[in-house]
Amino acid sequence: MDKQTTLAFVMIGIILVAWLYFNAPEPQPPQPKPSDEPEMVDDQLKSIESEAKETIEQEEKVASAFAEVAEKPEQIITIDNDVFKAEMTSKGGRIRKFYLKNYQTWYHRDIPDTNFYDNHVQLINQMEGGDFNLLFVTKDGQLINTKNLPFESSLTNWQYTIGTNDSLTLKYIYSFGEDKEIIKSYTFYGDRYSANVDIELKDLEDIISSYTYDVIWETGINFAEDNSVDEATFTAGSAYSGGEQVIVDASSEGERVQKDISGRVDWVGVKNKYFGIIIAPHTPYNDGGAFLEGYNQSNQYGAREYYSVTLKVPFKNQSYQKDSFILFVGPMVYDLLVSYDRNFDAIYDFGSIFGLQLLRPISEYLILPLFLFLHNFIPNYGFVIIVFTLIIKIALYPLTKQSYKSMKRMQMLQPKIKELKEKYPDDQQKVQKETMRLYSTYGINPAGGCLPMLLQMPILFALFTFFKVTIEIRHEPFVLWITNLSSPDIIATLPFKIPLFGVDQISGLALLLGITMFLQQKMSIKDPSQKALVYIMPVMFTVLFMSFPSGLNLYYFMFNLFSIAQQYYINHHKTDEELVPVKDPKKKGGGFMSRMMEAAEKQAKAQKEAQRQSKKKSKKF
Fold this sequence. Notes:
This protein starts with a helix and ends with a helix. 39% of the residues lie in helices and 25% in strands. It has helices spanning 3-22, 37-65, 116-119, 228-233, 334-339, 360-375, 381-395, 397-423, 428-441, 451-469, 508-524, 531-544, 550-572, 590-620, and strands spanning 76-80, 84-89, 94-104, 120-122, 133-137, 143-145, 152-153, 159-161, 167-176, 180-189, 194-202, 212-217, 236-241, 244-248, 256-262, 267-271, 275-281, 289-299, 302-314, 320-331, 490-498, 503-507. Strands 7-9-10-11-20-17-16-13-14 form a 9-stranded antiparallel beta sheet, with no helix packed on it. The chain is an alpha+beta fold. Helix 8 crosses helix 9. The radius of gyration is 40 Å and the shape is elongated. The chain has 14 helices and 22 strands. Residues 1-13 and 15-38 have low confidence and may be disordered. 31% of the residues are buried.
C-alpha cells in the first residue's frame, strides 16, 4: 500500500469518526423502575373510571327519577266549598277543573235541566289536562316539567266539602332517590276563591341547576262567553312589576308575543272578559322575574288567544327550600281583588284610549262605586242605569241649561244672519266675519251647545268598557226583550252585513236611541245649511250602536230622553230674555271668536297679496 492509499484510508477514518460523533442521538433521561409504572397507570385509570361511573349513575338517577311513569293510576279528588268546586289530579299534582258556583254558562237558560258541571263556568283549559306546574333544568341539562310526574296524595277520599269557616290542606308528594322530594301543598278555604300553595324542595341541590325554577301556568284560561271573538279581545297575560301592570296582548291573527321581566314581580296572571287566574308569591323576590307569552289563532269559531305566564323563583341551592304563593282562580270582581291588598285590582280592565289609562279614574272612582251603591237599593241593574243617567243629567244641568239658552239666543239671531247673507251675497268671508261680530256683540258662544256633549264623552267612553267587562252586569236582565245588559239586545238578524259597519243584527235599544237623537237634532238645529245633520247623525249612530252592549244603549237612550224633556221645558218656558248687546263682549266669549275670524281674514289677505305679487313677477318674465 503506497503512501497515498494509506493517507486516503486515514482521512476516510477521520471523516467517519467525525460524522458518527456529530450525528449521534442525545442521551435519554433515566427510566423509572419497572415496578413503578403499573401503579401510576392504575391510579389514573381508577380515578377516571370513578368519575365516569358517578356521572353515569347521577344521569341515570336523574333520568329515572323524572321519567314519565304511566304505571300509577291517576287519582282525582274533588274539593267543594261555598264558591267553587275543583278537581285535583295526582298527575303533576295540579288543578284539573275549577267550577264557579255563582256564575253560570251563557247557554244555561237554553238547557235548564243540565247538571251542575254543564251549567257553571269552568275556567281551566284542559288542553294539557290541568295546570299549575313546576319547570326546571337539571345538572345534566334536562328540562323537567312536573305536569306528568306521578305525585302521591296525602288525602285518601275522592271528595271533600269545606265549611264556610274551615280549611283543608291537600299535599302532593313526588319522592325519588334518597329523601329527595317535591311537595306541593294546597290549602283551600270554605269561602274563598284563592288557595295558599306551598312548594317544598328537599335535597335537590345536586339536581336543579341555573339557580332558579319556574312556577308556570301554561294553558291560559277557558273561554266562557257566547261571543268568543269579543271575549278574545279582552283576553291577555300580564304581570305586576315595578309598580305597574305589564301586559302582553296578541291582538292580530297569527301574532305571537313575548315579554321577559327581570327583578321583583308581585304577581303574574291571565284573564278573559270576566274571569282571571293570578299567581302571587307571599314574599316577592327582588332577584326573581317573569316570562309572559301569548299567541293568536283562528278556528271554525273565530279568533282565539292563548297565554302562558311564568313566575321565576330563585333556587338557593340548599338541601331544603320552601316557597309560598297565593293562587287565585275566580271572577274579576273589583272589590274582591282589592281585598287581597296585593294590587290584584290592576288586572281589572277599565278600558283605555290609545293605550292610556285615562278612563280608569272615571270608572274606578265614579261609575263603579255609584253603580254598586245604587244596587244596594235597586235590585234591577236596568233601573240602576236609569237612575244613574238621571244623576249624571242633574250634575250637568247647569252647563246644559246655559248651552240651551245659548242655542235659543242663536235662533233669535237667525234673522240678523239672514240679513247679512242677503246684504253680502257674493262675499262669504264677509258674512262669516260679520256673523262672528254679531256673536261677540250679543255675547253668544256658537260652540256653547256642544259643551255638555263634550263633557259627557269621557263618561260615555268609560261606560262603553264598563258594560263590557263589569261582571256585575253579566247576564243581568232588564225588561221585555232585554235579557243581558252586557250584550246587544238583538230583535232581528239581517241576511246581509251593512257596508262599512259590518253589522247584520238589529238592536231594539239602538233604534230607540236613533229616534231620540233625531228628535233632539230636530229641536236643536235651526240653521237650514245644517239640516242634513238632522238625518245623517241619527242614522250613523243607530248603525254604530247596533253591536254595543244594551246597558250602554240604555244609558244613552235615557240621556237623550232627559235631554229632550229639558230642552222642551227651556224652549217653552216663558222668560223675559231679549236679544240685547252685552256691555263687555270680550268677557262673554264673543271676542275670542271675533279675534279668530280677524286672524283668519288677515291670513287670507296675506295669501291674496302673495298670489298677486307672484302673478306680477310672472308677467315681467
